[in-house]
Amino acid sequence: MQNPIRSWGYEGDVKLDVNEWVLLGTNWTFQDLRNMKYTAKQGVAKKAIVPNIPRFFMNYLAEFHIGDLFGKEDFLKVWWSANYTDEYFYGWKISSRQSRKIKASFTQDVGVEYSIWDNKLGWSFEVDNITDSESFDKFGESKPGRSFATKIRYSFK
Length: 157
Prior knowledge:
Strand 3 (about 55-65) and strand 4 (about 75-85) form a beta hairpin. The chain has one domain (about 5-155). By secondary structure, the chain is mainly β. It starts with a strand and ends with a strand. The strands form two sheets. Strands 1-2-3-4-7-8-9 form a seven-stranded antiparallel sheet, with no helix packed on it. Strands 5-6 form a two-stranded antiparallel ribbon. The chain is elongated. It is built from no helices and nine strands.
C-alpha cells in the first residue's frame, strides 16, 4: 500500500564561534507535506497540502559570553534570538480562495545569565517576545504576548 502522505524538504543549521566571546547561529526548515491519495469522503484532493503544519520556519541566535569577569570561575552570557514561522493553512487547502490561515509570526527574545563557583550557582532572566508581537499556536489561537521569567539554579555536583 502506498503511503498517502508524501513529504520532502530541507533544513539547515549553522553555528559560528566568531571569537572566544561571540556565538552566532541560525537554522531553517522548509517542508512540503502533501496528500497523495484522493479521499472523496473527506473532500481532500490529491496533492493537497497537509494542514496545521508550517511549511517554512527559521530561528536566529546571537550570544555574547565571557568568563572570569568579576572573579575566578564566574560566567556571564547575554543572548538574543529571533523566531519566524511562515503562514500556513488551518484546514485542507482545497481552494485558491481559501482564507482560513494561521498568520505568519516573528518574535524576538533576550536574556542574561550569570553563574559563579564554576557554574554551581546561577541566575538567569529572560524576556520572551520582547516586541510584544502577535503570534499564534497551531490552532490559530493567539499566544501570550511579552513575558518575563527569572530562575535561580544550584547544582549539587
